[in-house]
Amino acid sequence: MASPEGTSLPARSEQVARALAVAGAPGTVRLLAESARTAAEAASALGCDVGAIANSLVFISDDEPVLVLTSGRHKVDTTALAARWGRGKLRRATPEQVREATGQAIGGVAPVAHPRALPTVVDEALTDYPQVWAAAGTPHTVFPTTAKELLHLTDGLLLPVGP
Fold this sequence. Notes:
By secondary structure, the protein is an alpha/beta fold. The chain has helices at 11-22, 39-46, 78-85, 95-102, 147-154, and strands at 30-31, 53-61, 64-71, 91-92, 120-123, 132-135, 141-145, 157-159. Strands 1, 2, 3, 4, 5, 6, 7 and 8 form an 8-stranded mixed beta sheet that branches. Strand 6 (132-135) and strand 7 form a beta hairpin. The model is unreliable at 1-5 (pLDDT under 50).
């Protein structure tokens, strides 16, 4: 597959593009010249509010990986989120656990195209934005989406992730 500029996408981003197409998501994966490894970098590269960046964070809870899609404008309160979600303690996954659970590296984890579906929470703060951007498998690829579409793509649960 190619990005809109005609440049070939990395293999992991092609997997994300295929998963989006299969799900009927209209967003196109974009290859960025700049890194989008952090929410601030992504917002700068895209010219959007940092809150419109959907960070894909992997945690371990009850001995299994879980995915939290959070707005770039704040951090996850793991204690409060675990209680709201009805799960055991949330702890950040190691880089190795992230790659094993998603097939992708930290800084480029997409909400889709993982070896198996992960239990997922979508931050309700993402509903404040008509369009949000999510990583597409690498730190240089992203795609436009919405909170509603993220819920559909991940079969996720909409919850506040802050205090």
